[in-house]
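re: the backbone from monday

yeah here it is again, tokenized this time
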């Protein structure tokens, strides 16, 4: 097996442009092909990871590496400039935890998204905004595709509400929704759109 230091990034505005920068690293388990039952050994190591001589073995390991990184990346977020683990199951540490994580992750994303949407609805209901404004804000705070095409003024208003929504959450909910909130914050970047004025 290999323990890999996976970089975790966040999007920040630098010099008027949104850029992805590294916020920190986390140690994750990457299985070798032997760990997964293949009768093949690496010819060398580079940066702590196995390198295989056969093209087929190299292709399979690259796919495994990408999948394991993606699984673990979905379990972390950046809060106040620090990388935190947002999933109670933690990061993968061995083959067993890798398969348990894969089995347990089925549907978890949808559960979190539903809870996030319900919390947004509760926040908007107490916001004092008109029903029409609530409807548009609900879409901008929960639908990444809609957020991407909204106009700049509405993006700014939605970002303000996103910040206030996060401030209204308790620490447990804030951590649980951190990944989704980060995605929505990134999507609410200035582009041209044609929504109504929400401010």
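seq for it, each position gets an aa:
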């Amino acid at each position: 097996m290999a323990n890999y230091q996976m970089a975790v990034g966040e999007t920040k505005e630098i010099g008027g442009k949104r850029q992805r920068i590294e916020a920190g690293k986390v140690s994750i388990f990457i299985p070798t092909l032997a760990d997964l039952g293949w009768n093949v050994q690496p010819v060398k190591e580079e940066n702590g990871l196995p390198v295989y001589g056969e093209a087929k073995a190299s292709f399979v390991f690259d796919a495994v590496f990408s999948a394991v990184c993606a699984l673990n990346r979905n379990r972390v977020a950046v809060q106040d400039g620090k990388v935190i683990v947002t999933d109670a199951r933690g990061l993968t540490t061995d083959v067993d935890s890798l398969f348990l994580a894969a089995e347990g992750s089925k549907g978890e994303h949808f559960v979190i998204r539903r809870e996030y949407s319900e919390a947004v609805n509760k926040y908007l209901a107490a916001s004092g905004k008109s029903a029409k404004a609530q409807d548009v804000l609900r879409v901008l705070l929960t639908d990444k595709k809609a957020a991407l095409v909204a106009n700049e003024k509405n993006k700014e208003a939605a970002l303000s509400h996103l910040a206030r929504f996060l401030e209204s959450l308790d620490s447990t909910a804030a951590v649980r929704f951190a990944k989704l909130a980060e995605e929505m914050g990134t999507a609410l970047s200035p582009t041209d759109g044609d929504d109504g004025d929400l401010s």
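The longest helix spans residues 55-73. The mean pLDDT is 84.
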